């Protein structure tokens, strides 16, 4: 039997498909005994019965499915047409009869709120809040019927259509129920968040309150009172009384009216302490009922009686780091992805392997952390618990010194948190972990001193090359000497745990360069040679990523003279590259391309995630960059000449600094200058080592995955990245150990959802994301970030989200979410750089300084606020990006 009406008390936990998110929540709250005004739901069965009366409905859905997610005009036009068609359809007789009976049972004399409740709303992953319509103070049977029909039609407002399209919900997937709820005539109403929706702090409850109905608040007609409450103590942390100029109140005959609030009440508190305490208690109990998931509540206060009219999960909060701390303190976590200039989610396999690499929190290097609390997950990303190093005074001073030099934004945010008692109360470092760190790093201070005082500096880049090559050869031999399967998988992970041993060898070179740069900046500050200190970083010696970039330019030079070869590159598939040999210039290009892949084929975009394709797997990004450079470049060798000029500028600056130094300290300045020139360039060598070792592990994992596909345990090879390494070992030993496919499907869905999350740079174990300080001299409308490469440039913005799909033209300003070596070919034509994330020593910053282009990184949301075609001024000295012209260039 088809159920067209369900009372709140009859709605069960499995009724989402029948009553939508809002209806299911009201049913759950009613059954749990919360103070919910009574009501009923017109079910989705009634909706389907209703739309079946529209003969053109299926055709309208076909047209909606073909609509693009950014086609605002199309959504507006189609939405209006669909609504008009539905509003011409009468409610079915069976629904009219059941609606009349439910209305009679609940009381015709009352006023009602009639709200839409879609089957894809108020869900943990998407709230759909405000996408459909609500009607207040509905009185009488005719008005109720009309409101229900208008709610059905509101499933196709233009905002609802676009929201579904942008969030991947098909228009045929979603149906609508209608909530009919006895209306409270409130003195006050508002919204309660059981976590702070701005900072994410789970220990702070926030309340917005205004007079009358809540529509004045949600419509933005008034500035509501804001109450922030400490959930632990119940104390009021902040009270901000708003200017409540109007209130919306129901009219006895139906509908609402907007009234002016008397002057003496506009600036008065809406809620007294008792009401705040009652709301806090209600919010905490509702959240507990939903298993600790933070909730967004709508409430009303009529006299002394508090009513709950809606609850939904807060979908905008970033997930908490997990597992959480194992003590009573509050911990601080730094995003590993931001430190590596990569904000995308990382697959479970990759997260597992990075825990094997890093010695953080381990007591011995080959330990495989399980349930570790030092490298934790949040939103399918890795976060590092940096709290222990902030507890001890020496490590705290060292951490802040490094962060201020490399990532000042992190240092500024940390400074606002680190002295809080709840953070200082957190656990101290484990002695065994400290001993491991000491054993690994004890020689570093001595080696730094040797670099600064006695080592042959011009030999350091070649030494680093030999070190990395030897390490990779040993790694590969140790892994590939084992038979495929469990033995090779175990060997690969075991070898990976030892790779960090290279850091104490490379670190003294890099640190000595950084220390020297800092000393030179202080020595020549406020002198005419301050700019020469920054110019020292141009054309650094020994940067493996710069070498890679120059060789991409060489490949473009091989293509440029041959129009037919350039045209063929537009269409050739990676597996068909051999066909280019038939074109003039093709053989030389393919031989050089093969040599390039032999040296750099293990690199790629977002390469810290082992699951991401490497250039050797998919050279599409390379081919795109080569085509773009060949099409827009001027003449062969220009990139080499440009880099030679940068090197000459760097050497000339070095000479001026040495000459400007007083005679007694000239030898020190000469030493510091050479440390910068010959040691800073090796910063890319550790990552180059990691990605080469990961390439060996990647082949080993894919071998095992291929065997599991043949055994029918995985649907596709790429499913292996959604297993943990231990799970893969179990399956390699016994393919029947368990069925991995449900886990893979669930984790893949979580991974895709995590792509839409805005990962924070820094977060506490309570979910608080500290706000970044805003410069006092920030021009209106400008973006603030970290000035990572000095200078000022004006140019046309080019927002690039996928370097494999876009080419930069000469003189454009690259606006990117992040950059890593996979993005480097785009720098050849860039006049400036703006990055959402980054620090002084992250990839984009270093490349920008070497190329002598101004750069501002760490702006947070530049790829959202800036648009391609805008004219920008990038001030890399002050860390400011200004929009000079809004009109998009044609």
TrEMBL record:
Every PEP-utilising enzyme mobile domain range: 809-879
TM spans (from-to): none
Residues in Pyruvate phosphate dikinase AMP/ATP-binding domain copies: 18-316
Gene3D superfamilies: ATP-grasp fold, A domain, ATP-grasp fold, B domain, Phosphohistidine domain
Protein name (Swiss-Prot/TrEMBL): Phosphoenolpyruvate synthase
Annotated organism of origin: Nannocystis punicea
């Amino acid at each position: 039997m088809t159920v067209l009406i369900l009372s709140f008390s009859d709605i069960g936990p499995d009724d989402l498909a029948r009553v939508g998110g809002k209806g299911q929540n009201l049913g759950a709250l009613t059954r749990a005994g919360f103070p919910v005004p009574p009501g009923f739901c017109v079910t989705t069965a009634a909706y389907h019965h209703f739309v079946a009366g529209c003969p053109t409905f299926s055709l309208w859905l076909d047209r909606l499915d073909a609509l693009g997610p950014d086609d605002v005009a199309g959504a507006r036009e189609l939405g209006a047409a669909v609504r008009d068609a539905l509003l011409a359809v009468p409610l079915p007789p069976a629904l009219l009869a059941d609606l009349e009976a439910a209305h009679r049972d609940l009381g015709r004399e009352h006023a009602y709120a009639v709200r839409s409740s879609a089957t894809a709303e108020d869900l943990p992953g998407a709230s759909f809040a405000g996408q459909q319509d609500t009607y207040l103070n509905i009185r009488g049977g005719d008005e109720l019927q009309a409101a229900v029909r208008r709610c059905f039609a509101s499933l196709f407002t233009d905002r609802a259509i676009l929201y579904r399209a942008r969030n991947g919900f098909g228009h045929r997937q979603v149906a609508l129920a209608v909530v009919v709820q006895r209306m409270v005539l409130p003195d006050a109403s508002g919204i309660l968040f059981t976590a702070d929706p701005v900072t994410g702090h789970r220990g702070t409850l926030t309340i917005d309150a205004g007079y009358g109905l809540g529509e004045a608040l949600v419509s933005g007609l008034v500035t509501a009172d804001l109450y922030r409450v400490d959930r632990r103590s119940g104390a009021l942390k902040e009270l901000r009384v708003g200017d409540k100029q109007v209130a919306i109140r129901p009219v006895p005959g139906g509908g609402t009216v907007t009234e002016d609030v008397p002057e003496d009440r506009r600036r008065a508190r809406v809620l007294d302490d008792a009401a705040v305490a009652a709301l806090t208690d209600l919010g905490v109990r509702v959240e507990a009922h939903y298993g600790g998931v933070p909730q967004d509540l709508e409430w009303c206060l009529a006299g002394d009686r508090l009513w709950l009219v809606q609850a939904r999960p807060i979908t905008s909060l970033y997930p908490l780091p997990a597992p959480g701390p194992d003590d009573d303190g509050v911990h601080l976590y730094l995003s590993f992805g931001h430190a590596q200039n990569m904000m995308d989610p990382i697959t479970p396999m990759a997260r597992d392997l990075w825990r094997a690499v890093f010695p953080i929190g381990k007591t011995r290097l080959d330990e495989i952390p399980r349930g570790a609390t030092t490298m934790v997950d949040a939103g399918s990303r890795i976060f590092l618990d940096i709290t222990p190093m902030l507890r001890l005074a020496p490590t705290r001073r060292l951490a802040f010194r490094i962060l201020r030099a490399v990532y000042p934004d992190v240092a500024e945010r940390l400074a606002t948190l680190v002295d809080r008692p709840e953070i200082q109360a957190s656990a101290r470092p484990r002695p065994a972990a400290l001993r491991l760190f000491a054993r690994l790093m004890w020689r570093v201070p001595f080696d730094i001193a040797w670099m600064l005082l006695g080592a042959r500096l011009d030999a350091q880049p070649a030494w680093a090359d030999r070190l990395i090559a030897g390490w990779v050869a040993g790694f590969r031999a140790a892994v590939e000497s084992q038979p495929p399967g469990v033995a090779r998988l175990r060997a690969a992970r075991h070898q990976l745990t030892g790779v960090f041993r290279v850091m104490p060898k490379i670190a003294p070179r890099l640190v000595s360069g950084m220390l020297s740069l800092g000393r030179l900046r202080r020595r020549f500050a406020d002198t005419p040679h301050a700019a020469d200190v920054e110019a020292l970083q141009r054309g650094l010696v020994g940067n493996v990523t710069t070498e890679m970039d120059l060789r991409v330019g060489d490949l473009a030079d091989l293509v440029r003279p041959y129009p037919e070869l350039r045209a063929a590159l537009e269409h050739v598939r990676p597996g068909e590259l051999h066909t280019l040999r038939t074109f003039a210039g093709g053989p030389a290009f393919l031989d050089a391309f093969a040599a390039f892949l032999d040296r750099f084929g293990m690199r790629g975009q977002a390469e810290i995630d082992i699951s991401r394709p490497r250039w050797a797997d998919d050279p599409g990004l390379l081919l795109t960059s080569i085509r773009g450079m060949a099409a827009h470049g001027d003449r062969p060798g220009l990139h080499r000449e440009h880099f030679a000029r940068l090197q000459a500028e760097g050497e000339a600056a070095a000479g001026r600094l040495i000459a400007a130094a007083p005679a007694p300290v000239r030898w020190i300045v000469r030493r510091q200058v050479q440390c910068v020139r010959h040691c800073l360039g090796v910063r890319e060598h550790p990552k180059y080592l990691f990605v080469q070792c990961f390439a060996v592990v990647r082949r080993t994992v894919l071998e095992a995955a291929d065997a599991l596909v043949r055994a029918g345990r995985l649907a596709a090879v790429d499913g292996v990245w959604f297993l943990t390494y231990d799970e893969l070992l179990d399956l390699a030993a016994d393919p029947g150990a368990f069925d991995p496919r449900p886990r893979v499907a669930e984790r893949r869905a979580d991974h895709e959802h995590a792509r839409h999350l805005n990962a924070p740079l820094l977060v506490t174990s309570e979910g608080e994301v500290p706000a970044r300080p805003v410069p006092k001299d920030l021009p209106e409308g400008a973006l603030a970030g970290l000035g990572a490469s000095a200078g000022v440039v004006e140019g046309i913005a080019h927002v690039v989200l996928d370097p494999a799909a876009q080419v930069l033209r000469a003189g454009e300003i690259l606006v990117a979410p992040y950059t890593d070596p996979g993005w480097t070919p785009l720098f050849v034509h860039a006049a400036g750089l703006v990055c959402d994330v980054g620090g002084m020593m992250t990839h984009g910053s270093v490349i920008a300084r070497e190329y002598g282009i101004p750069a501002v990184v760490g702006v947070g949301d530049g790829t959202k606020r800036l648009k391609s075609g805008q004219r920008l001024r990038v001030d890399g000295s002050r860390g400011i990006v200004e929009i000079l012209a809004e009109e998009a260039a044609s």
